[in-house]
Amino acid sequence: SATLDYSEYTYLWQLKGYLWRRFRDFLSTHQGKRYFAGYRILGRSTVGITLVFLIAYDVVTRDAALVVFFGLDAVYNIIRFAKRSLRYPTLTTTSFGLIALSIVGELILSSFVQSGEWLILLSLLRFVIIGALIALLYIPRELLARLYIGRAKAKLMSYSEFIVIGITGSYGKSTVKEYLASILSVKWNVIKTPLNVNTDVGIAKYILKTDFSQAQIFIVEIGAYRRG
Length: 228
Description:
The chain has helices at residues 2-15, 20-27, 30-36, 39-57, 62-82, 93-110, 116-124, 126-157, 173-184, 200-209, and strands spanning 163-167, 190-192, 217-221. By secondary structure, the chain is mainly alpha-helical.
């Protein structure tokens, strides 16, 4: 249950570049509101809090409540697995570290739990736990990002007569990149960023590991997150 939850939350954070601003913007969209109102957040919280109140009135129901709560979780995840709709992040050092730290954190907190109701409530806090971890890791990640970007910028500046074309916008970036690369490749040596690499750190890492010695044009897809 925890592994699947943290994997999906990490998937969402990864899509937003692990940035609070972009994640907040996502939650304000229709898609974000639908996700928040779905089973994993609002639906399960409603079930969990209802069961916690039942446990408070009758200690005998504790074990049954736990079976119901995690049983529903299992059924929900089995259905999503059957529909192939379970979502996992691209495995990177950051995504793997977030999932591992979140699970370890929950295990540590669980060791202090002495009752079923607190185990249920702790399970409902997974969205908060991973958000708190991302907030704690923001400064070291930002410093590392600046290092990557600075080195990538210096590498590109070292090439003479080298053209960099950036493509950004809210729609059609990848398609335009592919068209442009096909057209320009007729006459020049072209390198383009691979599919779904359009964040600042992702682009910087790609630049650092790519040989541009024979390239004349570098086409970069750049994610657009806000006006300007």
